[in-house]
Amino acid sequence: MQAADELWIFGYGSLVWRPDFPHVERRAGWIEGHARRFWQGSTDHRGVPGAPGRVVTLVPEPGGRCWGAVYRVAPVERDTVLARLDRREEGGFERSDVLVHTDAGAPLAALVYVAGPSNPNYLGPAPLDAIAGQVRCSRGPSGANAEYVLQLAVALREIGGEDPHVEALARLVEAP
């Protein structure tokens, strides 16, 4: 049974391969009813104002399953970790609650950051080849947008949670 004050954070983008916050446990897991899409603009990490990169957000998808990683944060680190993540995800992401399924038993109540269509950096759907072109050209303070896509694809493969959208985009980004 999960303790009431226990904080779990679900990552489905860069948090899968670069959590960059202290945690006491990490598990591979998935959420249901959502899909990961490169529909969020990044003007603060993987792009710049006027030339945004593309990062993932969650979109509702009946029957969908989105793999990622869930992290348990020590109670003493809770406020520090949340403040750090709020800064990291300030480009249009908001906190939301989600149930994360793992191979370790009952689903975990977790916090997730989601960027919805009403935020100013939301780019929305586009043809995958157009997204790939934007990703190949974008770079921001956190590095090349292509690195984000390729690292995410590798990390998802490592946890057994391959994502067709991410895999297809990674192939296009790597193409000459």
Could you walk me through the main structural features you see in this protein, from its secondary elements to its overall organization?
By secondary structure, the chain is of the alpha+beta class. It has a single domain (7-174), classed as Hypothetical upf0131 protein ytfp. The protein has helices at 14-17, 78-88, 128-137, 145-158, 164-174, and strands at residues 7-11, 25-42, 53-73, 94-100, 108-114, 139-140, 143-144. The longest helix has 14 residues, at 145-158. The radius of gyration is 16 Å and the shape is globular. It starts with 6 loop residues before the first strand and ends with a helix.
Compact overview of the structure:
This protein has five helices and seven strands, in the order E-H-E-E-H-E-E-H-E-E-H-H.
How would you describe this structure in keywords?
176 residues, alpha+beta, Hypothetical upf0131 protein ytfp, three-stranded antiparallel sheet, two-stranded antiparallel sheet, globular
Number of helices: 5
Global shape: globular
Q: What is the H/E order?
A: EHEEHEEHEEHH
CATH architecture name = Roll
Radius of gyration: 16 Å
Biggest sheet strand order reads: 1-3-2
What's the domain count? 1
- Stated plainly, the CATH topology is called Hypothetical upf0131 protein ytfp
* Overall mean confidence score, pLDDT: 95
Termini Cα gap = 50 Å
Q: Please, what is the CATH homologous superfamily?
A: Gamma-glutamyl cyclotransferase-like
Number of strands: 7
CATH top level assignment: Alpha Beta
By helix and strand content, what is the structural category?
alpha+beta
